[in-house]
Amino acid sequence: MDMKKLLLLTTVLAVLASCGSKDRGELVGVKGKKWHPEKPYGMQLIPGGAFIMGKADDDLAGVHDAPAKTVTVRSFYMDETEITNSEYRQFVNWVRDSILRMKLAVLADEVGLTPEDGGIGEYAFKDVDTTNMSVYEKYMFENYTGLGPTGYEGRKINKDVDLIFDTAEYPDEYYTEVMDTMYLPLEESFNGQRTWDVTKFKFQYNHMDIQEAARNRGVKRKDVILKEEIEIYPDTTVWIRDFAYSYNEPMHNDYFWHDAFSEYPVVGVTWKQAKAFCEWRTLWKNSYQKSKPGSSPVNTFRLPSEAEWEYAARGGLQAATYPWGGPYTKSDRGCFMANFKPVRGDYAADQALYTVEAKSYDPNDYNLYNMAGNVSEWVNASYDPSAYEYTSTINPSVNDANNQRKIVRGGSWKDVAYFLQVSSRDYEYADSARSYIGFRSVQDYMGTQVTANGQK
């Protein structure tokens, strides 16, 4: 091909390219879908901004632990209330049912039963029939399924058939065998009731250690993807262990599972279980997003940083002692503003003996309930008494994987007023569960234009 022909061909291609385009040959960028923020259910938007974090100078003891400093946080969504027993039970039930369905599918595969055979065969893996798979699904099934220690990794369980919990309706002996493995042995049962073996309620998830990846640029991606497996059932014995020589058996027996306490904050949950819940919540929402054509995945749900928690608790009030302002714990009508221990030995002076429903007392100016009292709340931060001295002033966060002392904030139903102050810091160990510690989650806001400073 001579130079004349090559030049002519290049010109023709250029003309065709510009004629078929709507950008008139200009650099207009890649056009995506018009995006609108969607406020997550049960959450409030906390507009980003600057605030004075820490203790006032007149708190001589606390100022060493939390010296005042001005910091800025980005916008985020936060749960209006602490995560309730009802909400956490949704997580527990999902994990339990997923494990059951996997066990049923595995046994159906081992004995060679399919949906046409009925019984446990109805719970066979959905990919047992490849005829209705898309090209992509078939490719993934043939090339990646079963690459793991069990040989069942990547198999799709059947969620279309309801699980059967009434023993009188079990479809066959195989189904009975699987269900039997999820209950405590008969010798550990009493009052004619068999209960779930909750040690088998384990949630597995993977996450990336982005901090480590950023610090060590030479590390391989697979080396910073971490796998976690967490027992997720709350430790109900905390009601007994936290208080020696005290009769709290009714709370141990009923608090988590009984409908009377559904709207009360979940307790007995470790820091690690709280993080697992957030991972599941992201998974649960994104599985719904996938079912809607054209929908984008949502941002990760997570625990708040210590700065985010304090900023939200203050509700836009600068230098406030409590979420409602302060410095008093009673309103002008003589009513207590939160659930705590106002008098030595008198837990009920505020009309609450233990916890109260998550939507109790007046919310702060960000419409968040019980940011002081009721239950203390896990945050995504490790406790270091000198942390305020070296953290960044923008989105400060200290979370050392080797430091198992994790921050709790807000005070609880069994604490004195000092721990209800928005600037008070406390900690508990990551693997510890308490009858007075719960949590709430946050989600990053997409964009930066919403700020409290800008609104003013």
From TrEMBL:
Gene3D superfamilies: paralog of FGE (formylglycine-generating enzyme) (3.90.1580.10). It comes from the Bacteria. Keywords: Lipoprotein. It holds the Pfam family FGE-sulfatase. One of its GO terms (molecular function) is formylglycine-generating oxidase activity. InterPro entries: CTDL_fold, Glid_motil-assoc_lipo_GldK, Sulfatase_Mod_Factor_Kinase, SUMF_dom, SUMF_sf. The keyword Lipoprotein applies. SUPFAM superfamilies: C-type lectin-like. Residues 43-442 form the Sulfatase-modifying factor enzyme-like domain. This is Gliding motility lipoprotein GldK. It comes from Pseudotamlana carrageenivorans. The gene is gldK.
